[in-house]
């Protein structure tokens, strides 16, 4: 493996449980694709994205040479994973993502789209062997991380805390919760989203899902509990009320906005071409014309 700094970075995302969605809840498939279609990455000219089945690949087509450019690429690729995480909160849809550096090639022949490379193989193999939800970052990328909290996952990868409001609240230095800071909602915005995410992870971990799903949830829960024990304990004790973290009603507007966002994404895709296609698939699977 080359010791030279990477000039290309690849974000590899796998939507989990896609086979079960396809066979048993095809409308959920329409929701997944509709959400993927709205990701911020599609608006950014410095990145390209490939979507095939349950996999999303995003990379920088222009090679980068400077430390500053590598920091920029790693920053944005991490934020693209954060964007997907944010849109999926409350949807009972989860993903596993790997951020790596290395060679990746993508080009179009007359009739065939081609993409391959060592970075893709490395990400695919790593993703298959690690039980978690969210994002991990390869050690080649870690030196260029600027804005996200990381903790070691194994010798090759670091776990990325995508719920940044919890890190922001943690950095205020409180030893117990709820805190009394009057403007805590400005200091740690979007906290209801993070609380809902942890609530759902806790339910997966303690529920009756398949053992492999509970194992992934347990891994995520363990990272958050070890990093933020006081915050997580306060949430568990309050049945995941955001008021356990700050003055009552501090995140009232953000909580209402989250509830509307969850409803919006549960409806998204209805009536679209994708929704019509999956309804036809569902009928044909059940033997209807």
Major sheet: arrangement of strands: 2-3-1-4-7-9-8
In percent, how helical is the residue content? 40-55%
How many helical stretches? 11
Mean pLDDT: 92
Q: How many beta-strand segments?
A: 9
**Coarse structural class:** alpha+beta
Strand content: 15-25%
Gyration radius, rounded: 20 Å
Global shape: globular
Taking the alpha carbons of the first and last residues, their distance comes to: 54 Å
Q: What composes the largest sheet?
A: 7 strands, mixed
Succession of helices and strands: EHHEEHEEEHEEEHHHHHHH
The low-confidence runs, each spanning 5 or more residues with pLDDT under 50, are none
Descriptive notes:
With 289 residues, this protein is an alpha+beta fold. 46% of the residues lie in helices and 15% in strands. The strands form two sheets. Strands 2-3-1-4-7-9-8 form a seven-stranded mixed beta sheet, sandwiched between helices. A two-stranded antiparallel sheet has the order 5-6. Strand 5 and strand 6 (113-116) form a beta hairpin. The chain is globular and about 60 Å long.
Write the layout of secondary structure elements.
Blueprint: E1 9-15, H1 18-24, H2 26-37, E2 48-52, E3 55-59, H3 67-88, E4 95-101, E5 105-108, E6 113-116, H4 118-128, E7 134-138, E8 150-152, E9 157-160, H5 164-170, H6 184-187, H7 191-206, H8 211-227, H9 229-237, H10 252-267, H11 273-285
Parallel strand pairs: 4-7
Antiparallel strand pairs: 1-3, 1-4, 2-3, 5-6, 7-9, 8-9
Helix pairs in contact: 1-2, 2-11, 7-8, 8-9
Concise structural overview:
This protein has 289 residues and is an alpha+beta fold.
């Amino acid at each position: 493996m080359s010791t030279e700094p990477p000039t290309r970075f690849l974000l590899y995302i796998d939507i989990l449980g896609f086979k079960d969605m396809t066979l048993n809840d095809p409308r959920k498939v329409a929701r997944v694709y509709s959400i993927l279609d709205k990701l911020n990455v599609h608006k950014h000219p410095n990145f390209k994205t490939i979507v095939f089945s349950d996999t999303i690949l995003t990379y920088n087509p222009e090679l980068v040479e400077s430390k500053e450019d590598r920091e920029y690429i790693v920053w944005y690729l991490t934020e693209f994973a954060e964007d997907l995480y944010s849109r999926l909160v409350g949807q009972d849809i989860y993903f596993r993502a790997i951020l790596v550096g290395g060679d990746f090639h993508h080009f179009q022949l007359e009739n065939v789209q081609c993409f391959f490379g060592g970075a893709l193989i490395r990400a695919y193999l790593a993703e298959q062997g690690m039980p978690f939800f969210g994002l991990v970052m390869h050690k080649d990328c870690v030196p260029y991380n600027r804005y996200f909290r990381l903790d070691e996952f194994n010798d090759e990868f670091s776990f990325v805390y995508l719920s940044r409001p919890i890190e922001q609240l943690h950095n205020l230095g409180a030893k117990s919760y709820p805190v009394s800071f009057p403007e805590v909602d400005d200091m740690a915005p979007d906290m209801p989203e993070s609380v809902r995410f942890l609530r759902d992870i806790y339910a997966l971990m303690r529920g009756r899902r398949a053992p492999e799903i509970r194992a992934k949830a347990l891994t995520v829960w363990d990272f958050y509990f070890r990093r933020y024990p006081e915050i997580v304990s306060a949430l568990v004790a309050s049945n995941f009320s955001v008021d356990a973290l700050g003055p009552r009603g501090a995140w009232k507007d953000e909580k209402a906005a989250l509830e509307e966002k969850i409803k919006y994404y549960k409806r998204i895709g209805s009536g679209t071409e994708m929704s019509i296609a999956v309804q036809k698939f569902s009928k044909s699977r059940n033997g209807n014309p």
